[in-house]
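Preliminary data (for renewal application), (2R)-2,3-dihydroxypropanoic acid complex.
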Amino acid sequence: MSKPKVIVTRRWPHEVEQRLGDHFDVTLNEADRPYEQQELRQALLLADAVLPTVTDRLGADLFAGGVRARILGNFGVGFNHIDIAAASAAGLIVTNTPAVLTDATADLAMTLLLMCARRAGEGERELRSGKWTGWRPTHLCGTQVSGKTVGIIGMGRIGQAMARRCHFGFGMEVVFFDSQPVPHPGMPARQLATVDEVLAASDFVSLHCPGGGENTRLINERRLARMKKSAFLINTARGDVVDEDALVQALRERRITGAGLDVFETEPSVPRALTEREDVVLLPHLGSATSETRIAMGMRVIDNLSAFFEGRTPPDAVN
Ligand code: DGY
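Predicted structure:
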């Protein structure tokens, strides 16, 4: 029997590409640049499985009129770049890679929180530019994190992993919002009834909800106004959860103290209004970027594909 035809839209870690090639008839994107829309459409027409990432926008137009592909194995946990309803209507199963990137992403959220609190980005820029004049008692003083309150928006796996780091590692109080009851959050933590209540109570707000849908611009001008003046906003979720213009305005007017962002509305372009500010820490979507995690994510995609083509339900089907 011939192997299912699989198109991978970006290069993956070597070990994963090797295993993929053992089981499937694989076409790799040798150039490792994002596919154009018509290339994605072609992929859906030519392959039995297409393996996209967050850089591929798979809107309803790509599925219109039917496609050959029967499964989309997304390399990543977030899938708001895929129109799930349209993919389902066209008969495709969509899978993602939950759980394997929880620790890496929570580590990066903690990195941003600490960098913001301790002005680490400012310090590094000062030193590298030769402007450091030596130790002095008032130099680049940041904010202590122990004893402060972190507010988690979205208490799923990553939110809980972040909360554990904050509570057990750094002695912080935890409050959170989640649209579902979370009876056993794994640490002493208070679930508050609204996002606004969490914003008002927190010294650091860390976003861990999915992007798209009702979460688009969840953190807008009105909600930023609920935050403490001394507070920081951390986003490792999706860029569209934050209204970037409103965030810049809040920073300019010193209505909040700073922000740590790993994700942006129109990646990879990042507004100049953000890159020119000292009070933000900006990273290029590195949440899951450890070698171990990226390998685990790829292997998870393969597990899902194998299940599907062997007639079993893929463990991480999202539709
Ligand atoms: C994820 O897994 O969702 C990462 O953000 C990359 O897509």
